Structure formats: structure tokens, C-alpha cells
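Q: I'm building a small set of examples for a reading group on sequence design. Run inverse folding on the following structure and report the sequence directly after it, with nothing in between.
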């Protein structure tokens, strides 16, 4: 009779060893719904970097002046504004703009760049209004997510959770406590790890993403075990142990 219990115990241990529990809850260390933080958060407003491509639209009270900044002179957009897109920021941090020549924009936010260009353009045209947007603001999410891909960000501001949402969220195998963020700053590639099980990530300088950030969600060891060739026989082993247990139980009960 003792043999029966031993065999049942071995089967239970074998089955339980096939998987282990994971913490799938974001910010699981929050104490309650009313908990808040008094820390001033980084707004995550991106700054213009080398090799960024900027779409720049200029409008003024003078249609003749607007033609200078149009990609196709005499061809206004639907709202009457002339647009020329695709100004790449050089390695020196500048763009080459009609009338103004070289304009240093690296390190500025979009709002600061617009204010600078409006100030410079108002020396030549009346009431210039400048609109600037990123044309190559992209983030990439790969690894243990449901829809890995590269996503173009239209509003030029995105945080880590929003990027994961675009990728369909993590799979159950994704290591929420050890998400890798890859970012390039001044030609140097840096890597940082963030813990999405912790509320502290909300105050992290890496919570808001920058242009061309890459998010890699590492798979849990359980995923490696599942796909390993050495473990393809595990269901057969478990079935064999179960069969032996059943036969042994039947034999002992006679």
C-alpha cells in the first residue's frame, strides 16, 4: 500500500515540476487603489536628435513668401499652408532650410524648435507660423509579446506600457520583472532593465520612450523548457509513470 502512495507522489511532483507560477500583474507592489506618488515625473517630451527626419510646415500672411518653403511652389495643402517634408538633421545637429540656411535644432523639443524658427523667419516674412513633426519616431517591441513589430508613433510621445499595448501585451511567458530597453544616445548603445512588477517604473527615466528605442521582453525559463528538444518526451514520461502507478495500484488492491 505504501508503494501506491509513493507512486502517486512521484506523479504529482513530476506534473508540478513542468511549470511554475509567475507574477503576471503589473505594479503588483501597489498597496491600494488610492496610493499615489508625490515625485515630479518626467514628461517624456522628446528632443531632436542627429539623423531625425523632420516634417516642417510654414505659413505666413504672405502667399508669395509661403512659396519659398513649399516642396512644389504654387501647390498649397488643403488648409492653404505650404509644406516641405523630409529635413534630415545632420551629424552637426542642423537642418538646411530655405532662406535661413543652416539652423541648429539638435537638443531642442518640438516646441522650442518651432519658436526658434518662427523668430528667425519673422525677420524675412510676416507672422510666420511653423509646425514641426517627427517623421521617423519609431519604437520596436520584440520578444515575448503577442504582436512583435516596429511601430510609428504619430503623437511623438509614448511610454513603455503604451508600446507594449501596441504589441498586444506580453505573453504569459514574458518576464515582466526584467524588461530590457535598448537606446542609442550620441552613437552609444545603452541597455537598461526595468521591472514592470514594481510601481517604481512609473518614476523611471526610461518609462517614456525615445526615438528608435527597442524593447525586448525576455522569455521565462519555462518557455525554454517547453520548446527544448530534450523535453519533447516529457508527456510520454508522465504518461508512462501514470500508467505504472495505475497498474501498481490495481495489483496492490487485489
Amino acid at each position: 500500500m505504501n508503494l501506491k502512495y509513493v507512486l502517486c507522489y512521484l506523479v504529482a511532483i513530476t506534473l508540478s515540476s513542468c511549470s511554475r507560477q509567475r507574477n503576471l500583474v503589473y505594479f503588483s507592489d501597489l498597496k491600494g487603489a488610492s496610493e499615489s506618488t508625490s515625485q515630479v515625473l518626467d514628461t517624456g517630451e522628446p528632443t531632436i536628435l542627429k539623423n531625425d527626419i523632420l516634417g516642417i510646415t510654414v505659413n505666413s500672411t504672405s502667399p508669395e513668401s509661403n512659396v519659398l518653403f513649399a516642396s512644389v511652389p504654387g501647390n498649397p495643402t488643403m488648409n492653404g499652408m505650404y509644406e516641405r517634408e523630409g529635413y534630415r538633421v545632420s551629424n552637426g545637429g542642423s537642418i538646411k532650410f530655405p532662406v535661413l540656411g543652416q539652423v541648429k535644432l539638435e537638443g531642442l523639443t518640438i516646441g522650442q524648435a518651432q519658436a526658434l524658427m518662427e523668430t528667425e523667419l519673422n525677420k524675412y516674412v510676416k507672422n510666420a507660423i511653423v509646425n514641426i513633426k517627427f517623421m521617423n519616431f519609431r519604437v520596436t517591441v520584440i520578444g515575448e509579446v503577442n504582436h512583435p513589430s516596429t511601430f510609428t508613433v504619430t503623437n511623438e510621445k509614448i511610454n513603455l506600457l503604451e508600446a507594449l499595448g501596441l504589441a498586444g501585451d506580453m505573453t504569459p511567458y514574458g518576464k515582466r520583472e526584467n524588461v530590457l530597453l535598448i537606446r542609442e544616445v550620441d552613437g552609444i548603445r545603452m541597455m537598461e532593465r526595468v521591472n514592470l512588477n514594481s510601481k517604481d517604473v512609473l518614476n523611471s527615466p526610461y518609462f517614456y520612450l525615445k526615438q528608435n528605442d527597442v524593447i525586448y521582453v525576455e522569455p521565462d525559463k519555462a518557455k525554454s523548457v517547453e520548446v527544448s528538444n530534450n523535453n519533447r518526451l516529457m508527456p510520454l514520461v508522465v504518461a508512462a509513470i501514470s500508467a505504472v502507478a495505475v497498474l501498481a495500484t490495481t495489483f496492490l488492491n487485489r
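The longest helix spans residues 234-252.
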